[in-house]
Amino acid sequence: MQIEKGIVLLAQPFMLDQHFSRSAVLLCEHNEQGSLGFILNKPVDIEIQSLFDEFPDFDAKIFYGGPVATNSLQYIHTKGDLLEDSLEIVPGVYWGGDFEKLKFLIESELVKSNDIRFFLGYSGWVDGQLKEELKHGSWIISDMDANYAFKSDRMKLWKTILENKGDNYKVIAQMPDFISLN
After folding, report:
1. Vertex 36 angle, CA 82 and 134, to 5°
2. How far apart are alpha carbons 129 and 146 in whole angstroms?
3. Is the pLDDT of residue 180 over 70?
4. Count of domains in the chain?
5. Quick one: pLDDT at residue 175?
6. Mean pLDDT across the stretch 109-135?
7. What is the CATH number of the domain that holds 103?
8. Is the residue at 148 inside a domain?
9. Buried b / exposed e across 121-148, counting CB within 10 Å, b at 16+?
């Protein structure tokens, strides 16, 4: 597979970078300037209402999107048909859109907590950096499925995606976090 918007990057099991250890990153943008994505499986213990004074009462998890611009909030969702200015990443997964309209859709109960994922920060690579990391074996590329973002168990997501790739990846998925536990 090649690097393109809509793939999932899975960290190799022994990646030492604490930001990306056992992470599954949805790549939302890839062009000549670089790449941008969000870590799908690292929830943080922050409520959305603590970030915005006038946000509707909404029970949604916030995730650590990556180490870049951790003071920014981004979101992916399933409601591209309702939320203007959304960008389709893969069928059934959209990025961003009109934030005021999003609040209205939440208040109107047209957006439910399983329709959206919020991220603090993002994962970013300058042009050529991600290609080099792939060449050195830091990442495994996988197809994206909307269920990964909205219906999968976050704590098992890295393992689930690897197992879905089949064959040798099923073996990699079983590797313990620490080799000393093997």
Report:
1. 135
2. 26
3. no
4. 1
5. 79
6. 96
7. 3.40.1740.10
8. yes
9. bbbbbeeeebeebbeeebbbebebbbeb
**Domain annotation covers residue 172:** no
Task: Return left, alpha or beta for 77; rule: phi > 0 is left, psi -120 to 50 is alpha, else beta.
Answer: beta
In a domain, 169, yes or no: no
42-98: pLDDT as tens digits: 999 999 989 988 899 999 889 999 999 999 999 999 999 999 999 999 999 999 999
Confidence at residue 179, expressed as pLDDT on a 0 to 100 scale? 55
Number of helices and strands in the chain (H, E): 5, 10
- Does the residue 167 lie in any domain? no
Can you give the length of the chain in residues? 182
Phi, psi of 106 (to 5 degrees): -70, -45
Which pLDDT score, from 0 to 100, does residue 1 have? 73
Q: What percent of the chain lies above the pLDDT cut of 90? A: 80
> What helix, strand, coil percent values describe the chain, rounded to 5?
25, 30, 40
User: Which residue range(s) make up the domain with 149?
Assistant: 7-156
Q: What is the pLDDT of residue 75?
A: 98
The CA-atom distances, in angstroms, between 106 and each of 58, 60, 71, 100 are 7, 11, 22, 10
